[in-house]
Amino acid sequence: MTKRVGWLAALATASVAALALSACSATPDASPSSSTGDLASLVQADQKTDVTALQQSLGTPAAKSGVKLCYVTRTLANEFWGYERDGFEAEAKKLGVQFQTYAVNDESSITEQLDKAQSALNQGCSAILASPISATALDSVFKTALSKGIPAIVLNDAKSTLPGVVYVGPDAETIGQSAADYIAKQLPEGGKIAQIEGDPGSSNALNRGKGFKAGIAQHSNLNLVASQTAKWDTNQAQTIANAMLTANPDIKAFYSQNDGMALGVQAAIDAKGLTGKVMLVGTDGIPQAKKQIAAGTYTATVSERPTTEGATGVDVALWMLAGKKVPAWVNVPAFVVDKQNVSQYMTGMP
Fold this sequence. Notes:
It is built from twelve helices and 13 strands. The chain is an alpha/beta fold. The longest helix has 18 residues, at 4-21. The model is unreliable at 1-36 (pLDDT under 50).
């Protein structure tokens, strides 16, 4: 991952190979979807296809006149969701599609998000895209949409189990596993590890934590001595990390389930005079985290690709509206950013 071009080329090659081996996860079909049954038949259950391979297979989508796409996101106070929104809106503009974004004020307000999603459904949307706060939070809206022949697409978080709903994003468990493996590689002598968790109602938090703990369990010389939720809040994360370092001053590394909380952890590490002595691995790849990595005060982040996810959600919606088959999971894999490659990703998010 030291060369951007090499990484992209490797990803594309692997993606094409995977597509061929999976006996085609996405199949063009010229017949438009006009009923619930037709719509569900377009989503290939249990199929997982890499985003690059899918784009190569289906090509650039086209929008019919009058198509309107709606995205129900989470709080834009978290810049990650801002990049997800940006990807969605930029792709819609590029393809000449009407669009509207609905954002909530509170990261944990399931009720507010459900209200926004129901409102979107009543605004004549041709497809509903959403980043649910919890796995089942918007199921009622998705069911209604599907019953009307309206595609339902989840971006990044809370992969739905409802048949017919498409998920666009990474594997959250793999993200946690990647963080554990990275820490293990950097600490061959082992040591004590701590984890800062996101909101316990979030699918991302649950799955990242599951993957991280499974990864740590594979490295017998790593000892997870503390793991606590900070509910995606920077200040809470700082307070919790400070307490963890007080109780276990020999902690060697922290894993934070997002970069916002990791910035709070870094402040606690700095306050203890442990800058550069305690590893910190975050998640998401937000610009501020990458600035800290470049400065040498933050070790690494497992970077996601929210701009790509938002844009791909638009493509998936338009492919489905054109009657093309798509996989139930469009994989947009995450990757590690550290001092070796951070200079390639300093601005924005991929």
